[in-house]
Write a structure and sequence with these properties.
The protein has about 120 residues and is an alpha+beta fold. Helices cover about 20% and strands about 40% of the residues.
Length: about 120
């Protein structure tokens, strides 16, 4: 809702087979989330990363991202790819991801494809 992305764009039917990570605060409220999908053999895709605006910059997103990367490694993936909003590129760079290819628009927002190889 914050970014005005149509719910129909978000609903891709892949949630049932995804690994989901959700971080909860001390009150038990969800504050960050992300999902991990299987791609080509040995390749994973991280997506649907979101952190509540009130707690951004407090490492919640990094905790979720790290948990998804660890899971990908444990199941044997050698590469993790994600479609980062351009505004979050530095966040993913700090986590070891690198830009692959040229910027593009997705869901009306500027994005870059990023990957991390193990």
């Amino acid at each position: 809702q914050e970014q005005g992305i149509d719910a129909a764009v978000e609903a891709d039917g892949r949630d049932a087979t995804a690994v989901h990570a959700v971080a909860f605060n001390r009150l038990g409220l969800p504050v960050a989330t992300g999902r991990l999908l299987s791609g080509e053999p040995g390749q994973a895709l991280i997506g649907r990363m979101a952190v509540d605006r009130a707690v951004r910059g407090q490492r919640w997103g990094r905790e979720v991202l790290d948990a998804l990367v660890v899971h990908a490694k444990q199941r044997g993936d050698q590469r993790v790819t994600l479609h980062a909003q351009a505004s979050a590129e530095a966040f993913y760079r700090r986590a070891g991801f690198a830009v692959v290819g040229e910027p593009y628009e997705e869901a009306g927002l500027p994005h870059v494809t990023m990957e991390r190889v193990f």
